[in-house]
Write a structure and sequence with these properties.
By secondary structure, the chain is an alpha/beta fold. The protein has nine helices and nine strands. The strands form three sheets. It has a four-stranded antiparallel sheet with strand order 7-1-8-9. Strands 4-3-5 form a three-stranded parallel sheet, with helices on both faces. Strand 8 and strand 9 form a beta hairpin. The longest helix is centred in the last third of the chain and has 17 residues. The chain is globular. The model has no long low-confidence stretch (mean pLDDT about 90).
């Protein structure tokens, strides 16, 4: 463990903080020379091995992620033009599927029309592990291509519980204004709480931590953000 990390850890001296307290502290303990990504991690009281306890969804962060999202659209017919006009970085059909099969991965999000999912299905092994596979539940398989592109460009992020019951999701950069970071984090936490499965028993949010790329985690008092 490096000296900078150890020094940062000493500044985190309370067992839990409210979100407004945690943000300025995070800015203090983020010691890297680059603009670190800020992430929220939530440990949930679910068993993701059961399909009915899967927690996933999307949220449009009010202040985006601080980077320009590269969005591609796999579509046919009029939807190709629609995707282009909405500002997609690359639009195509089977030609785009082949390009990705050939190793091209210069994008952050994939939107597909339902009629192209047969072709897109061939990309499961490439897109699946990266969390980029289009899915109707997250609005990335849709006929409303223009709206989907605009939402992703505006800062829409997807969250999904992993096999250990934890959701990890970026909410911005350390350089963000503190209030904007807090609003982004709150939007994500609220969306996850709303996505609670009916079958989840007991306490749903077991813990919440806030951290940046290199910083120690700061525990957030779940009670301070769980209020409706």
């Amino acid at each position: 463990m490096g000296k900078k990390y150890e020094a940062a850890m000493k500044l985190v001296d309370k067992p839990a903080y409210s979100l407004p307290e945690a943000i300025p502290l995070l800015k203090k303990v983020a010691f890297a020379k680059f603009d670190e990504t800020v992430e929220v991690a939530m440990r949930l009281g679910v068993d993701p091995k059961h399909a009915d306890q899967m927690v996933r969804g999307t949220v449009v962060l009010p202040h985006g992620l601080g980077k320009s999202m590269r969005v591609i659209v796999i579509a046919s017919g009029d939807k190709v033009r629609e995707g282009r006009e909405a500002g997609a970085d690359e639009v195509g059909g089977d030609d785009l599927v082949q390009k990705i099969q050939g190793g091209w991965m210069d994008f952050d999000a994939v939107i597909a029309t339902p009629d192209m999912m047969k072709s897109v299905g061939r990309l499961g092994k490439v897109l699946g592990p990266r969390g980029l596979m289009p899915n109707p539940k997250t609005g990335t398989v849709t006929v409303d291509v223009a709206r989907a592109v605009r939402e992703v460009k505006a800062g829409k992020v997807e969250f999904r519980v992993d096999k250990t019951g934890i959701i990890h999701c970026p909410v911005g950069k350390v350089s963000f204004d503190g209030e904007k970071l807090a609003e982004n984090a709150h939007a994500l936490i609220s969306s996850v709480i709303k996505a609670k499965p009916a079958t989840a028993k007991g306490r749903f949010v077991k813990s919440i931590t806030l951290s940046s790329t290199m910083s120690p985690p700061i525990t957030i008092d779940a009670g301070s953000v769980e209020a409706p």
